[in-house]
Hints:
The protein is an alpha+beta fold. The protein is built from nine helices and four strands. It has helices at about 15-25, 45, 65-80, 90-120, 125-150, 160-170, 180-190, 195-210, 210-220, and strands at about 5, 30, 55-60, 60-65. A four-stranded mixed sheet has the order 2-1-3-4, covered by helices on one side. A hairpin with a 2-residue loop joins strand 3 (about 55-60) and strand 4. It starts with a strand and ends with a helix. Bound molecules: glutathione. Glutathione (GSH) binds next to loops.
Amino acid sequence: MPALRIYGIARTRAFRALWMAMELGLDYEHLPIEIGAAGARAPEFLSLNPNGRLPFIDDDGFVLFESLAITLYLAKKHSNGQLYPASLEDEAKTWQWTSWALTEVDRGVNIWSLHAVRLPAAERDAAKRDEALRVLAAPFKVLDAALARQSYLLGGDFTVADLNVAAVISRAIDMDLSAVPNIKSWLTRCLERPAAREALALKAKADNETPAEVTRRIAKINRL
Ligand SMILES: N[C@@H](CCC(=O)N[C@@H](CS)C(=O)NCC(=O)O)C(=O)O
């Protein structure tokens, strides 16, 4: 039995942890539990993640929640100097881009994808979708400018910094990104990596199998 267990259906932010585990070639068990009372908020799972949210991992008894803390932990544990940077400065830049992704763009991309793609067409709110695009415009310009200078966020190589930002904005691949061409080419490059394709296939399958009432619940619970 693998020591590492990743909890959360791949439609959720568990996609981020799954992508990292696949990049690292780890042996792991995926437990695709759902959100809500029958899943993450059931007592047996609340005892592991009291937030009642997904994802979380159990790595041989070490339990961790927050999707991007999980990717950073796995990368540092298994790939120091490659996917996880070796220098203090590159590590700090990784934290910078990780915090940036969570605070500047995570919510906006989620709102956009719900109201542009995931909710049934008749239930999409164009005002929310357009407001999300307005909120994303400034941070996307920042990311686009950073990627004009180099192929990846820390330089010439793909690292956990790229994985974290690309995973957070992965649903933006369906947006019109013509105003930010460096993001478009970088995001395409990141999402075409074999591990990303494998994780995206799991996510697409889960998306396709998600009933509309669950998508509605996601929008309601998270006020999106
Ligand atoms: N900051 C957390 C957010 C976790 C989160 O909101 N997960 C969503 C799924 S993507 C969830 O579990 N929502 C259901 C709920 O809150 O009950 C992370 O990145 O892990």
